[in-house]
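Quick one before lunch.
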Amino acid sequence: MARKRSEHTCVFGFGWGDEGKGKVVDLLCPAFDIVVRFNGGANAGHTVCVGSETFALHLLPTGVLHETAVGVIGPGVVVDPIALLAEIDALAVRSVDVADRLKISDRAHLVLDYHKIEDQLSERAAGAEGKIGTTARGIGPCYADKMRRTTAVRFADLLDDKELTLRVRRIVEAKKASFSAMYGEDGDLNAQTVLDKLAQAAERLRSNVCDTTRFLHEAIESGKSLLFEGANGILLDVDHGTYPYVTSSSTGPHGIGAGAGVPPQCVTRLIGVSKAYSTRVGSGPFVTELKDEIGERIRRQGREFGTTTGRPRRCGWFDAVTCRYTAQLSGATDLALLHLDTLTGLEEIGVCVAYRCDGQTLRTLPASVSRIERAEPIIEFLPGWREELRSVRQFEDLPKNTRDYVNRIEVLIGVPISIVGVGPDRSQTLVRGELRDVVQVPESSLA
Ligand code: GDP
Ligand code: IMO
Ligand code: MG
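Model of the guanosine-5'-diphosphate complex:
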């Protein structure tokens, strides 16, 4: 595939994660030199389907599947070093060698055993009603330690063995005391086990750890193109999402400044990704959720089971209220609307255009979770289609009702829909407008 120079771009989720960011990043990748993760950690699960092969990446930027791309894990990512090594090894077994093309920020924080244990203890203590439904990957506790500062470990700390040993021993003692006080058990923590894992990580990742901020600035100055790969989704953003049912990082393009050390104004193309319906895993409000046969059918047809945890995803109609909100927050220049094929066969398809709550009509997302939970969706129904879409390769060849559906969403959100997904494979993607100069969709997935 021909490589073209491209403006710095961010791909990010418009919803509660799992929108198909991996697929869009994979498609764009040949036009970029460097792919950068700037938020989240191993809570992410980004899927790429190439022919009969499926890859699910958690900590590595999806772009590393392209051997021309350098992958960067920025300072805003929280890295479980053992999970990262397992991911690198699993790819090597499949003949994808990333070790020489990966750079990890020396400012990035490490997710250690006690973070994962705390994630589980705190969810258990919150009970079925109060829990967030986290991925149990230690994300929240690690970001909390980062903000607390005195109990954090960064990659830069791995350079000084003596200081690191003292630091980890002190942190583990403090964690045991706080777990005992809060949860009635000390989590069976062992400082030496943590130190052994850190030593293993330091040994194997030493050559990958560097000042990625400087690396990215030099890359920008020398004319390289950067692709920023958001993890999670804007409705899970710690500031702007359905708090407290969110993750602990800044999940949209606004996270790039903090999470990659690159001035966000450098990044001029902002591609939000959404499904043609909504999904959510974990707890939290979901106004358009379908707890009926149609929701079940979407889950079955769309294979809506978590990439990281395998949990069934909750499914519902497309929500123009949340998507307008995320479009405004992010300043999205383009929208990728995926999974149109999953809706094939439905008589009619609902789109939520506003909420009804406490006698008022709401057109934007309220801050209060209990208010969102009380909201009823105002649904506009559009006619469905029966045709199979997976072999369609041009937008104009889609059935009229499918095109009308896409065009209606474009009008409701006010962002051009430049990418349309009609199947999981690389080749099952339709590109419209200017983006056609950047993205070349392979005719067959093996191209
Ligand atoms: P991410 O976390 O945003 O990268 O999304 P995930 O990989 O967790 O989940 C998206 C799922 O949808 C994956 O299984 C993709 O292979 C699949 N997918 C992406 N686009 C399409 C599409 O247009 N149609 C169908 N049927 N599946 C798609
Ligand atoms: P990708 O990048 C879907 C959800 C969890 C939970 C909440 C908090 O694959 O889209 P955490 O473990 O982050 O503390 O969990 O956020 N969540 C995701 N849901 N896709 C993700 O990532 C997610 N990352 C976090 O299910 O509700
Ligand atoms: Mg995912």
